[in-house]
Design a protein that fits this description.
Blueprint: E1 5-7, H1 17-23, E2 32-34, H2 44-47, H3 52-63, H4 69-79, E3 92-95, E4 98-102, H5 112-116, H6 119-129, E5 135-141, H7 145-154, E6 160-167, H8 173-180, E7 187-192, H9 196-207, H10 210-219, E8 221-224, H11 231-250, E9 260-265, H12 270-281, E10 285-292, H13 297-304, E11 306-308, H14 329-336, H15 341-354, E12 356-358, H16 361-366, E13 370-374, H17 377-391, H18 397-402, E14 411-414, H19 423-429, H20 438-449, H21 455-460, E15 469-471, H22 476-484
Parallel strand pairs: 4-14, 5-6, 5-8, 6-7, 7-15, 9-10, 9-14, 10-13
Antiparallel strand pairs: 1-2, 3-4, 11-12
Helix pairs in contact: 1-6, 3-4, 3-11, 4-6, 11-12
The structure holds pyridoxal-5'-phosphate.
Pyridoxal-5'-phosphate is lined by residues 110-112, 145, 228, 265-271, 320-321, 398, 415-416.
């Protein structure tokens, strides 16, 4: 059966998976949603005998129905290889009765790698399938982690180039070092003398620049985006929920058909939506618990049915979740509105005009699979300390937001390596932290947490700086043209 993708904002013609991946966002500004979520056509017992890569094929073939078996397997094998520091790609760790699904074994030791390692291959395959002859140029503004994950994913992928703009004084020294040491002839990293908003606005302007698009087209280039609303990022995230359930079954931790709750530290709502898709594919998942930090827009939403971004933005120790507009939530809203694009568009319009909307009672009832939860900064720090003291297992701050201490027999998405743990929280478990330098601190942490310092961190210590371009926001276009040689 072929699966087509519809925009959440209008009744325009549905498109094939490869077209949805190439476009990223629909022309009307909506997100692409599969017309229906396919059911798994293998039993969980069959799946429990499969590797990560084999499971990935079983899941993705049902969504990306216009890809051939060879195309899809080729994408999967190029993505989930030795870039990951474990053959199982997404291992499960049991601690204090809960199962931590570690999604941080890729190139940048955070969960974005799970999707960004395969997106480049899905994109160039989609381009070929749609007779796009141009090279794909990925343009991104980053405030830190996503930029590096995208660079790592696209580096040396033939037929692509990637340009990342970051605020020169707005990312951490380690994040900057990670980016400016990026290898690959097709990568380009530029610091902007401005903040993240300047970088973001500049990138949006370049995307909308028709004149530039024409010039690029003549020279054999076209822009595309790697941001988290691309369906080519969402679907690969469904895989690890299927895989981890099957692994729990294989290890005899759960009985076949036994329902399990899934807890996800949430920002843009992509990861938890992938779990919802896994549930709809037939994985016995009970509740989907959406964990927020002090920016608890989603918690309030699941409580009241009112999404309201008009509130103070809090900087927390889980920065990848410091988000007031969770863009992937739009897909759930659309589905809960009975795939009524007019209704969804009205909500999104209200969100952009008034910063809020209220869903109907009926829609709220349809969302009974979801539960909101949130943790304060103190609770997050206390959780890390308590779990460490009880079990010796160290979790990062994002994961800790989801770990409430009452997670027995739940599956918790663990989204970043504890090596990324912040100093302030490290203090919770270690007294001498103040006197240490950054790399010393990572080694000490690695000893305590009983994990090796990942290559990703080890390498940048000595790696040469390969990117030193700095520009004003007005110069972004010129910089892009220079890099493309046009
Ligand atoms: C991006 C990110 C999240 C949030 O995931 P969403 O899919 O945006 O909800 C949580 N933790 C870490 C470490 C992340 O990088």
């Amino acid at each position: 059966m072929n699966v087509f993708y519809r925009s959440t904002r209008s009744k325009s013609e549905p498109v094939k998976a490869s077209e949805a991946i190439l476009r990223g966002l629909a022309e009307d500004g909506g997100l692409y949603v599969p017309e229906s979520v396919p059911r798994l056509d293998k039993t969980l017992e069959e799946l429990s005998q499969m590797t990560y890569q084999e499971t990935a094929y079983e899941v993705m073939k049902l969504f990306f129905t216009d890809f051939t078996e060879e195309e899809l397997k080729n994408c999967i094998n190029k993505a989930y290889d030795s870039k990951f520091d474990t053959e199982v790609i997404a291992p499960l760790v049991e601690a204090d009765g809960a199962y931590y699904l570690e999604l941080f074994h890729g190139a940048t030791i955070a969960f974005k790698d799970m999707a960004l390692s395969i997106l480049p291959h899905l994109l160039i395959t989609s381009a070929k399938k749609n007779n796009v002859k141009n090279d794909i140029v990925i343009l991104t503004a980053t405030s830190g982690d996503t930029g590096k994950a995208a660079l790592a994913g696209f580096a040396d992928v033939e037929g692509t180039k990637i340009i990342v703009f970051y605020p020169k004084n707005g990312v951490s020294p380690i994040q900057e070092k990670q980016m400016v040491t990026q290898k690959g002839d097709n990568t380009f990293v530029v610091g902007i003398t401005g903040n993240f908003d300047d970088a973001q606005t500049g990138v949006k302007k370049l995307f909308g620049d028709k004149e530039l698009a024409d010039e690029m087209n003549k020279a054999g280039f076209q822009f595309s985006s790697a941001n988290s609303i691309n369906i080519g990022r969402l679907v690969p995230q469904v895989v690890y929920y299927v895989y981890s359930y099957a692994q729990l079954l294989k290890e005899g931790k759960i009985a076949n058909g036994e329902k399990i709750n899934v807890v996800v530290p949430t920002g843009n709502f992509g990861n938890i939506l992938a779990a919802y898709f896994a549930k709809n594919m037939g994985v016995p998942i009970d509740r989907l618990i959406c964990a927020s930090n002090e920016n608890k827009v989603l918690y309030d939403f699941f409580e009241t049915g009112i999404y309201d971004r008009n509130r103070e933005f809090v900087l927390t120790s889980s920065p990848s979740m410091d988000i007031l507009i969770s863009s992937n939530l739009e897909r759930l809203i659309y589905l809960m509105a009975g795939c009524d694009s007019d209704k969804n568009a009205a909500f999104m319009n209200s969100l952009s005009k008034e910063g809020k909307y209220e869903i109907t009672k009926e829609m709220k009832e349809n969302m009974s699979d979801f539960y909101g939860n949130y943790a304060s900064e103190k609770e997050t720090a206390d959780t890390i300390k308590a779990l460490y003291e009880k079990t010796g297992y160290v979790i990062d701050t994002h994961t800790a937001v989801a770990a409430t201490g009452d997670n027995t027999k739940e599956l918790l998405a663990s989204t970043a390596s504890p090596i990324k743990l912040t100093r302030s929280l490290m203090k919770a478990i270690h007294e001498n932290i103040e006197t240490m330098g950054d790399f010393e601190y990572e080694h000490e942490l690695s000893k305590i947490a009983n994990v090796t310092v990942p290559n990703a961190i080890e390498e940048i210590r000595t790696a040469p700086v390969l990117h030193d371009t700095i520009c004003d926001k007005e110069e972004m276009k010129a910089v892009v043209k220079k890099f493309l040689g046009i």
